[in-house]
Design brief:
The protein has 137 residues and is mostly helical. It is 58% helix and 7% strand. It is globular. The termini are far apart.
Length: 137
């Protein structure tokens, strides 16, 4: 059963009020909560076909099952409307995020925005993160 928007926002607010947290997803209906408390935003801006491929791969891997990152009873499913949503909102969502980040850079220059566009960017970021963690340990 899907959580109501009010419950979802309440949960996000509670998490964002803790000292350390990581939230995944670009849910527009709770962006304001997350961005207000975030010190770092990592934006994975991967190609549209890769998004579709990953959704289909996740579906094939977990058909009829509940993934570990999903709520109890939320079985993996893919339907045409979901694929259409990904396909048709891809470029408008990219533009919305670009605009949000431009505004954020002007209003909150203390926030770090990390924009990763491909596998190489992601691998380099993870390598740097691992190197920093190793040095600090």
């Amino acid at each position: 059963m899907e959580t109501s928007l009010d419950e979802f926002r309440d949960t996000q607010e509670k998490i964002a009020m803790t000292e350390k947290w990581i939230m995944e997803g670009n849910y527009s209906n709770s962006y304001d909560i997350r961005v207000a408390r975030a010190d770092t935003i990592i934006y994975l801006d991967v190609p549209r076909l890769l998004c579709i491929y990953r959704v289909l791969k996740r579906w094939v891997t977990h058909i009829g099952q509940t993934r570990p990152d999903m709520g109890n009873g939320c079985k993996e499913k893919v339907d045409w409307s979901f694929l259409t949503f990904i396909w048709t909102t891809y470029y408008p969502r990219k533009e919305k995020m670009r605009s949000r980040f431009e505004q954020l850079e002007q209003t909150s220059p203390d926030k770090s925005i990390i924009h990763l566009k491909n596998k190489a960017d992601i691998a380099n970021f993870l390598h740097e993160l691992h190197s920093k963690h190793t040095i600090l340990s």
